[in-house]
Design a protein that fits this description.
Length: 831
C-alpha cells in the first residue's frame, strides 16, 4: 500500500541483448510484465524494420487461425481455453506450426469441399426422386377422360398437318416463391401450347448450403413442338430450376426411382464417413488451435517489441530502452541473465538518466482498483504526484452517502455488492459478457462501501425507507408539556397543531444519543429543521474537504523540492480559504454551541453577518454573536484580500529572481576555451564516457535547457490565482448539492411510501383482505424503490460525488497530466 499514496519510482534502463538470446530475453520479459519499451526506431517505417518478415508470417498464421476458428464455430463446437501457461515458442517452432496449420487448413478445406459436393449431389438425387415420386396426372390420360372439345386442336386426325408431332415432357423442381411467376411466364410465352402441373414436395429437403430444411415445388410440363420445348428450357434456366429426365413409360419411371433411391442410400453412407472424418479433423483443430493462437500472439508481440530496438554498431547485440519500476530492477537483471545464459553472453541492464517525465505506476488490487479508476478517469497523475485514491476510498463513499442517506436503501446496495464480492472467484461471473453486469462487478467494492456509508448516514438522518425508527428514548417529553400548560379540551379543539416549548421544564431532556430525534418525523416543521441542518452540514463538509485538498499540495511541493511554493502559494491559499469560509464554519459551530433555547428567538442570522462582513457594515436588527465580531470580520477580509497579490506575484517574481541569479553564475563560471566551455555546460559529464551504443539510444532531451519566459509564468500564475479565488466561492456553493440531493432523496422516499405503501395498507384495512392486497402493492413498491431510488437516485448521487472530487477537491493539488506505465506483458494475449 506504500505506493498508493504516491506513484512508484520508475527508472529508464538500457538493455543490451545478445542477438542470439534477444528473442528469449524479450519473451521472458513479456511473461513477467516489468518493462515498457520505448521505440528507438520512430523514424523508420514499419515495413523497413528488422523483424518485419517474422511479423508478417505471424499475421498470415493468424488469418489461417481465423479460418479454422470459423470452421469450428460453424460446426457448433467451442474452442476450449488453453490449459496452464503457454510459453512463447522458440523461433524454430514457427516453421513447424506453420506447416501443421497449413496441412490442417488444407485438410479441412478438402473435407469441407467434399462434404458440400456430396450434399449437393444428395440434394439433386432427392429432388429427382421427389419429381418422379409426385403423382402428376399424365396429360394424355386427362384428355381421354375429359373428352372436351378444347383438346381437339391439339390432336389432329391421321393424315393432318401435325401427324408427326409427339408429346414431350420437362420435369424438375423450383423454389416455392418462384413457382407462380414461372407458371405465368410459361403460359404467356408458349401461348397455351403446354400443360403444366405444379405440386409441393411432401417432405422438406435439407439445403446443401445453409443446412436448413426447405420446401420445393415440383413441376411436370407436357408440350408439343420443338420450338415450344426450347422456350420452356430457356425459361426454366432463367428461373434456376433443377430439370431432370422424365421417362414416358410408368415402368421406366419406377425403375429410375428405385435406382435413385439406391444411389441416395450409397451417397448417405459416403457422406456419413466424410462427416466422421470431418469431426476428427475438427477435433484436432480444437485440441491444437488454442495453444497455437496464444503462442503466435506471444511470438508476434515479441517481434514487435524487437522492432523497437536498435542494432549496435557491431551487429552483435540489440539495444533497447525501457521504463521499469526501481524495485523491479533486480528481478529484471536476474531474468535477463537466466534467459541469456545459453547464448554464452549475458544481457546487460544499464540505468541511464533522462529528462523526460517518467510514466506513472501505481499498483492496485481488487479493492483499490475501482477507486484508482475514479481518479484516473479525471487524468493520470504526474510522476510521483500525490495520489488522491487512498483518500477517495473514504471521502467518495461518504459524500455519496450524505446525498443517499437511508438505512433501507443503503442496506439493499450493501447486500447486492456483498453478493458480488462473495462470488467474485467463480469463473462464470468473471467471464460474463453483459456490459452492465461487468460495470457493476468491477465496482463491487465501491458499491459495498457506498452502501455501508449510506446505512451510517441513514442512522444519522433516522430514515429507513423514509420512516423514522425509535432506537433510543426521545429527548422530548409531551407529558411534561401537557401538565405544565393550559391545554384544555377547548384549546385542543381550536388548535390542531401543538408546539413543544423547550424552555418549559422537563419538555426537552437532552439531545438524542445518535442522529435525528424521531419526534421530528411527526413535526410539521420537519422539513425546515432538516433544511437548516443539512445546509450547514454541507458547508462544513465542503470547507473541510477543500482545505484538506490544499494541505495535500504541501506534500507535492516538498517532494518536488519547491519549498518556496509553501510560502508563496499554499499559505496564501489556506489563509484566503480559512479567513472567509473557515470563518463561516466557525460561525455555524459557534451558534450551535452558544445559542440556547431561551435565546433562540433572538438568535442572529449567520447569513446577514457573512454579507455584512464583505460590505464592512453592520445591521442594527442583527446583534453580533460575540464581542468584537466586526473587528475580527474586517481583519479577516483584509487579510484574505492581501493574499491575492501574494498568490499572483509571489511565484513569478521569485522564479525570475532565481533565473537571473543562475544566469549570472553561469556567465561568471565560463572559460574562454571553447572545448572547456562545452564540457562545463554539459548537464551530465558522464556523456563523454558513453560508447557509440549508449549515444545512439540516449534521450533526445538530455542536453536541452528549459527556457524561462516570465510572461508565460505570470500568465499561468494569474490563471491559477483567478481560478482559486473564484473557485473558493463557487466550490463552496457547489457543496450545497449535498443538501439538495439529500433533500430530494428523502422527499422521493416519502412520496413513494405515501402514494404506494400507505394507500395499500389503508385499502387492506377497509376490504379485510390485507394479505391479498399487499402482495401486488409491495411488489410495486419494491420495483419502484429499486428502479427510482436505488438506480436513478443512486446514479445521480454517484455523478455528483464524482464532480465534487474531480472539480472541488482534486484541482487543489492534483494536475492529472501524466501517463500510465504500460508494461510489455503477455496477459492480454493469454486472454
Amino acid at each position: 500500500m506504500g505506493s498508493m499514496f504516491r506513484s512508484e519510482e520508475v527508472a529508464l534502463v538500457q538493455l543490451f541483448l545478445p542477438t542470439a538470446a534477444a528473442y528469449t530475453c524479450v519473451s521472458q520479459l513479456g511473461e513477467l510484465g516489468l518493462v515498457e519499451f520505448r521505440d528507438l526506431n520512430a523514424s523508420v517505417s514499419a515495413f523497413q524494420r528488422r523483424f518485419v518478415t517474422d511479423v508478417r508470417r505471424c499475421e498470415e498464421l493468424e488469418k489461417i487461425f481465423t479460418f479454422l476458428q470459423e470452421e469450428v464455430r460453424r460446426a457448433g463446437l467451442v474452442l476450449p481455453r488453453p490449459e496452464g501457461v503457454v510459453p512463447a515458442p522458440p523461433p524454430r517452432d514457427l516453421l513447424r506450426i506453420q506447416e501443421e496449420t497449413d496441412r490442417l487448413a488444407q485438410e479441412l478445406r478438402d473435407v469441407r469441399g467434399n462434404q458440400q459436393t456430396l450434399r449437393a449431389q444428395l440434394h439433386q438425387l432427392q429432388l429427382h426422386s421427389a419429381v418422379l415420386g409426385q403423382s402428376h396426372v399424365p396429360p394424355l390420360a386427362a384428355t381421354d377422360i375429359e373428352g372436351s372439345s378444347e383438346w381437339t386442336p391439339l390432336l389432329q386426325a391421321p393424315g393432318g398437318p401435325h401427324q408427326d408431332l409427339r408429346v414431350n415432357f420437362v420435369a424438375g423442381a423450383v423454389e416455392p416463391h418462384k413457382a407462380a411467376a414461372l407458371e405465368r411466364l410459361l403460359w404467356r410465352a408458349c401461348r397455351g401450347f403446354l400443360i403444366a402441373s405444379f405440386r409441393e414436395t411432401e417432405q422438406q429437403l435439407e439445403d446443401p448450403v445453409t443446412g436448413e430444411p426447405a420446401t420445393w415445388m415440383t413441376f411436370l410440363i407436357s408440350y408439343w413442338g420443338e420450338q415450344i420445348g426450347q422456350k420452356i428450357r430457356k425459361i426454366t434456366d432463367c428461373f434456376h430450376c433443377h430439370v431432370f429426365p422424365f421417362a414416358e413409360q410408368e415402368e421406366a419411371r419406377r425403375g429410375a426411382l428405385q435406382q435413385l433411391q439406391q444411389q441416395s442410400h450409397e451417397l448417405l453412407e459416403v457422406l456419413g464417413e466424410t462427416e466422421r472424418f470431418l469431426s476428427q479433423v475438427l477435433g484436432r483443430v480444437q485440441r491444437l488451435l488454442p495453444p497455437w493462437q496464444v503462442q503466435i500472439r506471444k511470438m508476434m508481440a515479441v517481434y514487435l517489441a524487437l522492432n523497437q530496438c536498435s542494432v549496435s554498431a557491431t551487429h552483435k547485440c540489440l539495444i533497447a530502452e525501457a521504463w521499469c519500476a526501481a524495485r523491479d530492477l533486480p528481478t529484471l537483471q536476474q531474468a535477463l541473465q537466466d534467459s541469456s545464459s545459453e547464448a554464452g553472453v549475458s544481457a546487460v541492464v544499464h540505468r541511464i538518466a533522462c529528462q523526460d517525465m517518467p510514466p506513472t505506476l501505481i499498483r492496485t488490487n481488487r479493492f483499490t482498483a475501482s477507486f484508482q479508476g475514479i481518479v484516473d478517469a479525471y487524468g493520470v497523475g504526474r510522476y510521483q504526484e500525490v495520489n488522491p485514491a487512498p483518500y477517495t476510498i473514504i471521502t467518495f463513499p461518504f459524500l455519496f452517502a450524505v446525498m443517499f442517506g437511508d438505512v433501507g436503501h443503503g442496506l439493499l446496495m450493501f447486500l447486492f455488492a456483498l453478493a458480488m464480492v462473495l462470488v467474485e472467484n467463480r469463473p462464470a461471473v468473471k467471464t460474463a459478457k453483459n456490459e452492465i453486469w461487468r460495470t457493476f462487478f468491477g465496482g463491487r467494492y465501491l458499491l459495498l462501501l457506498m452502501g455501508l456509508f449510506s446505512v451510517y448516514t441513514g442512522f444519522i438522518y433516522n430514515e429507513c425507507f423514509s420512516r423514522a425508527t425509535v432506537i433510543f428514548h426521545s429527548g422530548w417529553n409531551v407529558t411534561a408539556m401537557a401538565n405544565l400548560s393550559d391545554w384544555s379540551d377547548a384549546f385542543l379543539a381550536q388548535h390542531p397543531l401543538l408546539a413543544l416549548d423547550p424552555n418549559v421544564t422537563g419538555v426537552f431532556r437532552g439531545p438524542y444519543p445518535f442522529g435525528i430525534d424521531p419526534v421530528w418525523s411527526l413535526a410539521v416543521n420537519h422539513l425546515s429543521f432538516l433544511n437548516s441542518f443539512k445546509m450547514k452540514m454541507s458547508v462544513i463538509l465542503g470547507v473541510i474537504h477543500m482545505a484538506f485538498g490544499v494541505v495535500l499540495g504541501v506534500f507535492n511541493h516538498l517532494h518536488f523540492a519547491q519549498p518556496y511554493r509553501l510560502l508563496l502559494e499554499t499559505l496564501p491559499e489556506l489563509v484566503f480559504l480559512l479567513a472567509l469560509f473557515g470563518y463561516l464554519v466557525f460561525l455555524i459551530v459557534y451558534k450551535w454551541l452558544c445559542v440556547t433555547a431561551a435565546s433562540a428567538a433572538s438568535a442572529p442570522s449567520i447569513l446577514i453577518h457573512f454579507i455584512n462582513m464583505f460590505l464592512f457594515s453592520r445591521s442594527p436588527t442583527n446583534r453580533p454573536l460575540f464581542h468584537g465580531q466586526e473587528v475580527v470580520q474586517s481583519v479577516l477580509v483584509v487579510l484574505a484580500l492581501a493574499m491575492v497579490p501574494v498568490l499572483l506575484l509571489g511565484t513569478p517574481l521569485f522564479l525570475c529572481r532565481q533565473h537571473r541569479r543562475h544566469s549570472r553564475k553561469r556567465l561568471a563560471g565560463r572559460q574562454p576555451d571553447e572545448d572547456q566551455t562545452g564540457l562545463l555546460d554539459s548537464p551530465d559529464t558522464t556523456v563523454a564516457s558513453w560508447g557509440s551504443d549508449e549515444e545512439k539510444a540516449g534521450c533526445p532531451g538530455d542536453h536541452k535547457e528549459a527556457e524561462f519566459v516570465l510572461s508565460e509564468v505570470f500568465m499561468h500564475q494569474a490563471i491559477h490565482t483567478i481560478e482559486f479565488c473564484l473557485g473558493c466561492i463557487s466550490n463552496t456553493a457547489s457543496y450545497l448539492r449535498l443538501w439538495a440531493l439529500s433533500l430530494a432523496h428523502a422527499q422521493l422516499s416519502e412520496v413513494l411510501w405515501a402514494m404506494v405503501m400507505r394507500e395499500g395498507l389503508s385499502m387492506g384495512r377497509k376490504m379485510g383482505v390485507a394479505a391479498v392486497v399487499l402482495v401486488p402493492i409491495f411488489a410495486a413498491f419494491a420495483v419502484l424503490t429499486v428502479a427510482i431510488l436505488l438506480v436513478m437516485e443512486g446514479l445521480s448521487a454517484f455523478l455528483h460525488a464524482l464532480r465534487l472530487h474531480w472539480v472541488e477537491f482534486q484541482n487543489k493539488f492534483y494536475s492529472g497530466t501524466g501517463y500510465k506505465l504500460s508494461p510489455f506483458t503477455f496477459a492480454m494475449e493469454e486472454e
